Input
Amino acid sequence: GENVEQHPSTLSVQEGDSAVIKCTYSDSASNYFPWYKQELGKRPQLIIDIRSNVGEKKDQRIAVTLNKTAKHFSLHITETQPEDSAVYFCAASPRPLAGKSTFGDGTTLTVKP
Amino acid sequence: GAVVSQHPSWVICKSGTSVKIECRSLDFQATTMFWYRQFPKQSLMLMATSNEGSKATYEQGVEKDKFLINHASLTLSTLTVTSAHPEDSSFYICSAHEGQGVNYGYTFGSGTRLTVV
Output
């Protein structure tokens, strides 16, 4: 089955700096890669996603890049703000409409004011 | 956007009792729902895939007789933790996919924090 590894497990940055979280996956059949943000005690929320036919996607301060050859994808957050502090999960799915996602172990991001 | 309602948000029960958790898709039909559990500071671990009108598919190591899943309609899936024990204490969360549009992300319920005493 799919195996998703996520690094780092914790990340602390100063407000205004950039944050990068990286994930690798093992199943070459995976073609959908969402990122979720989970605040303490709350549900994960989709913040951005990318499909295998796209190398990069950006939404305001958030961007995701995908290297399908190397089987890795990354989340980039620019101009970080304290409200960006949360746990971020990457995931990989081979069948976006009917399949199930395999999640990374999560990255706890702390943005210091 | 798609909304998944999950109840209860938290529950405390005694060892040996059963607890039912409900997930409803409010504005879409969900033929498939996924049930996860999440221990503190850990990732989401898929427990089972709930399919409307058929038996759920359980992940390896998950006891199907302990975690009963029923998906009787296109908008409701339930997870019943039977004969709960303290080690079952966890955050249980469901997710569903709307199946429409270009957003392939899954919508999560608000989660249920189960504490077994």
Summary: Chain A touches chain B through 24 residues (CB under 8 Å). The longest strand of chain A covers residues 19-25. The two ends of chain A are 41 Å apart (CA to CA).
